[in-house]
Each structure stands twice: as structure tokens, then as C-alpha cells.
Amino acid sequence: MQNIMILNGPNLNLLGTREPETYGFETLSDVEELCREAAASLGYGIEFHQSNHEGVLVDLIHEAGRKVKSGELLGVVFNPAAFTHTSVALLDAIKGADVPVVEVHISNVHARESFRHHSYISAAAIGIVVGMGVQGYVLGMQGLVSKLTK
């Protein structure tokens, strides 16, 4: 069975307790279970990761690129969190690894502080889901499958 990699950036390990009025009450474990169930309904497994460290995320993107080329992985659903607005390294990793990525944000970043309106990741993403809560991960997986298997 082919997998979809779900990547989560900094502070997403605090879901459920960090600013629940913005991010909701679901935990990262809840998100993982949601993704596992949604992927199974689409005929895929998942690889689920979270890191507060940019370099770890870069390494996981490189790994994803290798797995896409070998056929083990369809692509990546990526919530880069705060690195969205700061990380050229993640943009370069996605482009360099030639890995299909759907960018996901739980909150509507465009309705928040102006510094959150720019995403480095969007330039390399095949799609973006913003402001749909944790359901955005499911929409991201559905979009990834739809775009890459037609």
C-alpha cells in the first residue's frame, strides 16, 4: 500500500491546549487518527511526523522525495506552521526533492497578522488548504490523491 506523508511544523505538538480559540481543541493525536482514517478510506496509509526543528523537516522532505520516486509514497500534506513565513530552506527542500506537497493551515492565516499572509511554501505547493480547521488535513489528502491519480 502506498502512503501519504503528513508533516507538521513547530508548536503543533501543542494542539488542543495552545490558543484553542484559533486552533481548536483537537490534539495532534486526534489529527493523526483523523488522517489515518481518511487515508484508509482513500486506499492509502500514512506516515505522520511533527518536529519543532527546521532541519528535521528538511530531512523528512528529502526522504519523501526518495519515497515518491520509489513508488512508496504519493506525496506530502504539510502544515509548516510558523516556518511557512520564514523558511526558504523548506521551499528549497520541496523543490529540490521534487516532491508533491499540499500546504495546510488550520487557521485562516489571511485573517490574522500581516506577517502570516506570506508563505514561502506556497510557491512549491500543488495546492493549499487554509482555515478549515483540522478537516483541512483530510481535504489536503483528498486533493493530493485527486491531482496525482487522475
Automatic annotation (TrEMBL):
Keyword Lyase: yes
Pathway: Metabolic intermediate biosynthesis; chorismate biosynthesis; chorismate from D-erythrose 4-phosphate and phosphoenolpyruvate: step 3/7
InterPro entries referenced in this protein's UniProt entry, alphabetically: DHquinase_II, DHquinase_II_CS, DHquinase_II_sf
Oligomer and partners: Homododecamer.
Site entry: Transition state stabilizer: 18
Group of enzyme by EC: lyase
Similarity remark: Belongs to the type-II 3-dehydroquinase family.
EC number per UniProt: 4.2.1.10
Reactions catalysed: 3-dehydroquinate = 3-dehydroshikimate + H2O
Residues the record lists as binding substrate: 79, 85, 92, 106-107, 116
Claim: Amino-acid biosynthesis is one of the keywords in the record: yes
UniProt name for this protein: 3-dehydroquinate dehydratase
Active site: 23 (proton acceptor), 105 (proton donor)
Entry-linked NCBIfam families: aroQ (TIGR01088), PRK05395.1-2 (NF003805), PRK05395.1-3 (NF003806), PRK05395.1-4 (NF003807)
HAMAP family: AroQ
Known role: Catalyzes a trans-dehydration via an enolate intermediate.
Domain of life: Bacteria
Chain ranges passing through the membrane: 120-140
Gene: aroQ
Stored SUPFAM superfamilies: Type II 3-dehydroquinate dehydratase
Alphabetized Pfam families for the sequence: DHquinase_II (PF01220)
Keywords for the protein's UniProt record, in alphabetical order: Amino-acid biosynthesis, Aromatic amino acid biosynthesis, Lyase, Membrane, Transmembrane, Transmembrane helix
Alphabetized GO MF terms: 3-dehydroquinate dehydratase activity
